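Budget justification aside, the reviewers requested a transparent look at the raw inputs and outputs of the sequence design task funded under Objective 1. We therefore reproduce one unedited record. The lines immediately below are the structure tokens for a 135-residue chain.
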């Protein structure tokens, strides 16, 4: 990774899925590299945006120079195929061995702590100890 580049996430709503090629070209023109790309999927919008009731939503993680963000922002605003977009710095995720679902999302495993788990045997022992103390 270059010293002057950062990881950015670009989320976008497009009029048609071919517009994703334009985004890839724009990033390449600004010396960026795409690390992760989620293909655009058709979605129904909750409310009309510029008279569109459906769009194609996708996102990508890119290594980009910080100086290129303003230019990319301006270029995406002028692109007629882009309905909406958002450029953010994604939160750092610690690298760990986690299982992933088929669509790439992480599985969160909730494990009950054995310390807080009470069984009948444990309760019986505590009751017996309390009875012995009171005698």
């Amino acid at each position: 990774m270059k010293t002057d580049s950062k990881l950015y996430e670009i989320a976008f709503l497009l009029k048609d899925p071919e517009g994703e090629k334009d985004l890839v070209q724009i990033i390449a023109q600004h010396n960026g590299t795409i690390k992760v790309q989620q293909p655009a999927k058709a979605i129904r919008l909750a409310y009309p945006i510029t008279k569109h009731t459906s769009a194609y939503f996708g996102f990508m993680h890119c290594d980009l120079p910080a100086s290129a963000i303003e230019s990319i922002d301006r270029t995406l605003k002028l692109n007629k195929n882009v309905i909406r977009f958002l450029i953010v710095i994604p939160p750092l995720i610690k690298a760990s061995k986690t299982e992933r679902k088929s669509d790439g999302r992480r599985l969160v495993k909730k494990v009950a702590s054995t310390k807080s788990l009470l069984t009948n045997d444990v309760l019986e022992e505590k009751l017996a100890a309390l009875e012995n103390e009171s005698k």
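The chain has a mean pLDDT of 83. The longest strand covers residues 33-49. Computational costs for records of this kind are itemized in the attached budget.
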